[in-house]
Amino acid sequence: MIPELETVVGALPTESTQQAVGYPTLFLLVALGSLVPVIPTGALVSSAAV
């Protein structure tokens, strides 16, 4: 069991690699979350104005 555990632990990315991937992903998710409510609201306002 120990050799299997060493193989799994060795395959995990380092903490700095996780941060390098995690921060841009977090930024993109926050940006997407801020745009999602705007699109339906804009469609609703433009359809009400017609």
* Number of strand segments: 0
- Runs in which pLDDT lies below 50 for 5 or more consecutive residues are none
Q: What radius of gyration results from the CA coordinates?
A: 22 Å
**Structural class based on helices, strands and sheet pairing:** mainly alpha
How would a textbook summarize the main sheet? Answer: none
The amount of helix comes to: over 70%
Please work out how many helical segments DSSP would assign.
3
User: In angstroms, what separates the terminal alpha carbons?
Assistant: 69 Å
Beta-strand residue percentage: under 5%
- Average pLDDT, all residues: 75
Shape: rod-shaped
Tally of distinct domains: 1
- Elements, N to C (H/E): HHH
Quaternary structure classification: single chain
Keyword list:
50 residues; mainly alpha; 3 helices; 0% strand
Give a structural overview.
By secondary structure, this protein is an all-alpha fold. It has one domain (15-49). Helix content is 86%, strand content 0%. It is built from three helices and no strands. The radius of gyration is 22 Å and the shape is rod-shaped. The mean pLDDT is 75.
